[in-house]
Amino acid sequence: MSSVTLKNVCKKYDSKVVIDNIDLEIKDKEFVVLVGASGCGKSTILRMIAGLEEISSGDILIGDKKVNDIPPKDRDIAFVFQSYALYPHMTVRENIAFGLKMRKVDKATIEKKVQEAAEILNLTEYLDRKPKQLSGGQRQRVALGRAIVRNPKVFLMDEPLSNLDAKLRVQMRAEIKKLHEKLQTTFIYVTHDQTEALTMGDRIVVLDKGKIQQVAAPEEIYSNPANTFVAGFVGSPQMNFINAKIENGSIKFADVSFKADNLPDCENIILGIRPEKMVANGDIKFRAKTDIYELLGSEKIVYFNIGDAKCSAKLPPEFEIKEYIDLSVKKEDIYFFNSTTGNRI
Fold first, then answer.
1. Mean pLDDT to the nearest integer, 276-299
2. Whole-model pTM?
3. Cβ(221)–Cβ(256) under 8 Å?
4. For residue 1, what pLDDT band results from cuts at 50, 70 and 90?
């Protein structure tokens, strides 16, 4: 079993709480992505699972074994860092084999495991090259190879693609997903990139200020965000948030008013609308003054204000942009959030 469980885990630096009593259960063979802005605590969680950071309170279990006091080398995990951390004077073969050599594994076994990892990662023809002779993507595959040969219970990956260009990142995302399917072990992956999170994870853990905001499958995170933070973090451009008032059973914003069922008992509310849900034939129509727009080939993204809210819409390329544009949204495509707590209503 290579499940990973965090129970009431807290991390403090002096009086500053970095991880605030989180509970998380990652299943055996699952690919879980921790996502959030810089400083939210995602890398700290990864380092605590690895044993590179001490926890202040709570328990961490790998399988059914509590590992709080077990040193990193005995936790049966492999850590792939943001930097490739390859030895420049060693060949690819020697870099991949290094961890096994330090554990005094016999030469025949090392060679067998290195060959197997090289085949999985398409590195066979590069085994006798030095890191400086490789591209960024190839170096990252070597770093993955070094982890694979150890056959660990859990793979931990801390933003491993952030140093690659956009095209290589797309390629490596697919390769890491295929690698997970081949190895059939537990992957915990940290990123600040929502696209990586949505395309790679079986489940996504959205973090903010050391607290878990939502844990769910990618489609659930996108379609049913728990609060304004999750809704605003996932999706590009981000969800539009519009302050509105409830008066006499109607919702009002700018010069627009519409009826809605099961309204909450409050005066103020936040409406959430995805830019791609701005259409020409919806129930709720409004006019907006265009700020700027971007043509992205298959779509136009236009920016505008609704009251004091800065908004955007994803529109077809043939949509004519004028000083004022007429847009609309279907009632069922509007999210409602509590204006005080930010939680979904």
1. 89
2. 0.90
3. no
4. low
